[in-house]
Amino acid sequence: MTRTILIILSEFGYWGEELVGPLTAFDRQGYRSVFATPTGKRPQALPPSLDPGYVDPPLGRSVTTPEVAVAARQVDESDRLDDPLSLAEWIPERPYDSEDGHLRKVEAYHRELGRVERDIGRYDALVIVGGSGPIVDLANNGRVHDLILAFVRADKPILAECYGIACLAFARDWEDRMSILRGKHVTGHCKEYDYKDGTGFLGVDFNMGPPPYPLEYILRDATAPDGRYHGNVGKETSVIVDYPFITGRSTPDSYLSGEKLVEVLETGLRRYGW
């Protein structure tokens, strides 16, 4: 039976290679890929990620080869991303405690979550694509958190890349609020590779400067006390598998991340990179 992968993308810009890398591995394997965004809006690649001449300031070099730029542009301009699922239409939103009839509303919310947990039976894995966009509409998105928790409870693998990994750190059960990364080994965008200026997004005229938070510090705290964040600074790639999580530090890790998810699904890989 063909495997199906659910791929979540930001509506404020994704990094081209961080989609095309895993997607290449999935297409080669014959997987079906289903795309989703927070409100069903078509995702778009961040322009620098399609430009092989763009020099990444912290690394001091281009991070996009001409071949990857062509492949990423082909996917971005294709009809594959034209009709993504809407998380807002699929996944319920937890009501405010201050709302009238709160008890009935929160009961309905949990009933709907039960339906979502049944729905994900059609998917074999979840992927959260990185880039700067996830900072805006994925990292602290309650619907994304509930989807992640459903995959964790179903014991299904989750691949997250770059700033998409913040979603894993913030996805927590409201009863104990404990990190699902506690005791796990992960990688993610390290402090040395953070921009000092120029963090931008699609659809808004806003240069944030540096990212709003150092993802490395969040991941160090989220994995404590018995897990570990692996920055692997100075190494060309950094991909960590600590089942059910596969994490890729940044753009150069995209292809390897997708290949490792395939290994998780096909060969039972449970640990890699640590």
UniProtKB/TrEMBL annotation:
UniProt keyword annotation of Lyase present: yes
Pfam families cross-referenced by the UniProt entry: ThiJ_like
Domain of life per record: Bacteria
Alphabetical keyword list: Lyase, Stress response
Transmembrane spans: none
Single GO BP term: methylglyoxal catabolic process to D-lactate via S-lactoyl-glutathione
Molecular-function GO terms, alphabetical: glyoxalase III activity
This protein's GO CC annotations: cytoplasm
Family: Belongs to the peptidase C56 family. HSP31-like subfamily.
Name the UniProt record assigns to this protein: ThiJ/PfpI family protein
Organism from which the protein derives: Nonomuraea fuscirosea
